[in-house]
Amino acid sequence: MTDGTTAPLSVRRIWPRLGQGGVLMAVLVLVVGVAVSIGAVAVPLSSVGLVVLDRLLPGLVAHDVGAGHASIIWQIRLPRVILAGLVGAGLGLVGAALQAVTRNPLADPHLLGISSGAAFGAIAALLHLGMFLGALTVPLVAFGGALMATAMVLGVAHLAGARSAERLVLTGVAVSFVVMACANILIFLGDPRATHTVVFWMLGGLGMAQWSHLLWPMAVLLPCGLWLWAQADRLNAMSLGDETASSLGLNVGRFRLTVFVMAALITGVMVAFSGLIGFVGLMMPHLVRMVCGGDNGRVLPASAFAGAIFLICADALARVALAPEDIPIGVVTGLAGGIFFIWIMSRQSGSR
What is the pLDDT of residues 39-94, one digit of tens each? Predict the structure, then answer.
């Protein structure tokens, strides 16, 4: 990169990434099939494939899967598994981008206040505003909350002179606490008979997934994810420091703001349909960098795939651990995140 613009990826760089993507896609498809097949009512993996083929290409294959099993596969489990994949991919992608643009390995949507802002918006819509825009109300208000929290982080950082990436993260943590305090006030002031719905947002859950819900996360994740991937070279430059990025012709402040807005958009929509799910955006980029190195051209898509695979597995565990009851998925990811950081700390201390 010589003029601050994103250089097109060469064929030599594209092919390895396509190979990596092919492997990850195969693993993702396998994980989706297995996750759909397990649950309180076990369904053979072959039945999952037959039902999906029959729904996508009617009349292509004949099958003897019962109507009950077919309904469980297509109407209940598959939308939930796909939503888990979309949310995991979005959080993993956002975590990788934020860690690059802030040069902080602890940066993720939760620590920077974006998730808290999205949850604030969703809670306000559910308990106080009402569904005044129909099905779009919660996603749009959640995005507004995420954008508000992002603006607060940037505004406080500007007023406090916190221009470094490290202090920007600390500002995000402080704003996150303030926004969550405001969200708790909304819960306290809301109708006690309706506040049980807020548990969904505070602990995370995918049990309300429907086919109609999948359009919005997909419509946001695809264009925003492709845009972030196209900025891989700029993110690599940001990882080297603001001065280095500026010397390469990059407008650091404007680019960081744009990435934050994209992160707020993705996070707001994901939180609107899944609630608060922590640690995905924090863990996945770390694990991916251990395998793929630091090039964001590889880290960003691999983090998306890894996040999707991880959250699908976490949701499957949440469904079967105490079947027929569902454990909130945020509990599973929180437990995994805690164990992950204990492992990281022991690994680092062992290498000294």
Answer: 878 888 888 888 888 888 877 666 677 778 888 888 889 999 999 999 999 999 99
Tokens 């049990």 locate to 207
What is the rounded CA–CA span in Å between residue 125 and residue 242? 38
Note whether 80 and 315 are within 8 A (CB).
Answer: yes
Phi, then psi, of 14 in degrees rounded to 5: -70, -45
Torsions phi, psi for 322 (to 5 deg)? -125, 40
For 163, which DSSP code? -
pTM summary value: 0.86
Residue 300 token pair: 């960003």
The 8-class DSSP code of residue 128 comes to I
The DSSP secondary structure of 319-339, one letter per residue, reads HHTBTTBPPPHHHHHHHHHHH
Among 188, 206, 170, 181, which residue's Cα sits nearest to residue 119? 181
Do you know the residue count of the chain?
A: 352
Q: Say which amino acid occupies 270.
A: M
> Which residues touch 256 (CB under 8 Å, ≥6 apart)?
101, 102, 238
H-assigned helices in the chain: 11-37, 45-56, 67-71, 78-102, 114-124, 137-159, 165-189, 198-203, 215-230, 232-239, 242-247, 252-274, 280-292, 296-320, 329-350
334: Cβ contacts below 8 Å, ≥ 6 apart? 278, 279
Max Cα–Cα distance, the chain, nearest Å: 67
Nearest by Cα to 268 from 100, 114, 128: 114
pLDDT digit string (tens) for 162-188?
A: 666 667 778 888 888 999 899 889 888
Structure tokens at 283: 């863990």
- Measured distance CA(285)–CA(304) in Å, rounded: 9
